[in-house]
């Protein structure tokens, strides 16, 4: 067995909120790392904070990961299921004199903290119970049921590690107080629960947000005290909004589920998230998920905070839309169309080839699935919704335009169903333009508005083909009736 198969990483979200952009990016990096190296990706829900955790949030986190395609190999484990082990680990350290009981009440500690602050000093626990309570007395008071916490005894020296992103990071132990590992109610403090779980789950690389850097020296001390191997650490930089401030609701959607609702493709979201704080070292931006797996490395993670740029996401989404085969887009597009009440599954099944062709036609210009829906409307809805700007631009000379549309209508009426395709329609339109002594554009633009209501569309001949003869002729009729009025509205 090669040792890469022993690589184990985890994503350990706290279900106190939805899966947000930063969490999703951490999950993605862990997943990419595991898939790149054939390692194991563990999902652990850190739900020890009962009051703030909810199953609704857990569900949303799982849904977000499923949507992104980040499948986990083990779990979801629940941190709260490990309470007995967390407690046992704390007691093991107590037995080994790596930790001690603290009987100081919260009130006494608060007073001491306030006094230190008044002297403008940093308060650190003063080791009162280490110095003044003998081991025998400590055991006796605990046995008598006196409330106490368990504190870790921080040794002298310094604690450092070679972070895969930040290089050597070093903390003076003197700056760490003897931190609590077990509360007086017997529940573990975060740092103990995480270390106990990561040991139990044999995690070899801890890749997480760099807001955890200050926890890391404490965690390393716990690994050592528990005689466990210290994993590798990689702390990824945080994500900022375009204004340089930490990403928050102010910057728009931060929950991954909202992007699904906005019609972003999961593969575009994955591509986008991967490039925040990581780079493949090449001048390319569009990657499939497989290409990302092939390229992912810890060396490519940058130290500098990443920026969340919604414009880039939109652009990447458009790029992925146009590159994704119609068959793959079909389920997502169908859901949108059916939910919008434009068509039924049965109707789509009856014209499946036409439908797949339409998806291929429209995907080139759509920025997201909602945009796709907007563009697809004219092919399903009975009429068109005319865009004001398009009317102003292409229907302005009412009489002339109406006459041209009339001529186009009559000419198209002579085209047979079997010639109703781009090759058959284009010469007919161009010949008519010549006869009328005008440019093809003067027919194409108003006709596009007439049949789609919009300013832009794929090639008009493709559009007419997709619409079919009957719908095209009806729309041209409707336009001829509307043009004088529409031109009247928009004329200066
Ligand atoms: N549960 C922690 C969080 O959501 C992550 C802990 C870790 O990755 O070590 O911030
Ligand atoms: Zn104490």
Describe this protein's structure.
This protein is mostly helical. Helix content is 51%, strand content 11%. The protein contains 22 helices and 12 strands. It has helices at residues 21-37, 55-68, 83-95, 106-118, 128-132, 135-143, 190-200, 216-225, 256-261, 266-274, 289-295, 310-323, 326-339, 345-350, 352-363, 369-380, 388-394, 398-413, 422-436, 440-452, 460-467, 469-490, and strands spanning 8-11, 40-45, 74-78, 99-102, 149-152, 158-163, 167-172, 180-182, 205-209, 232-236, 239-240, 306-307. The strands form 5 sheets. The chain has a 3-stranded parallel sheet with strand order 1-2-3. The protein has a 3-stranded antiparallel sheet with strand order 4-5-8. Helix 8 links the parallel strand 9 and strand 10 (232-236). The longest helix is centred in the C-terminal third of the chain and has 22 residues, at 469-490. It is elongated. The termini are far apart. 34% of the residues are buried. The mean pLDDT is 93. The protein binds glutamic acid (GLU) and zinc ion. The site of glutamic acid has 7 residues, from loops.
Strand content: 5-15%
Shape estimate:
elongated
Low-pLDDT parts are none
Spatial extent as radius of gyration: 32 Å
**Strands side by side in the biggest sheet:** 1-2-3
Number of strands: 12
Q: Could you give a short account of the major beta sheet?
A: 3 strands, parallel
Distance between the termini: 78 Å
> Which percent range fits the helix content?
40-55%
- On the 0 to 100 scale, the average pLDDT is 93
Which structural category fits the helices and strands?
mainly alpha
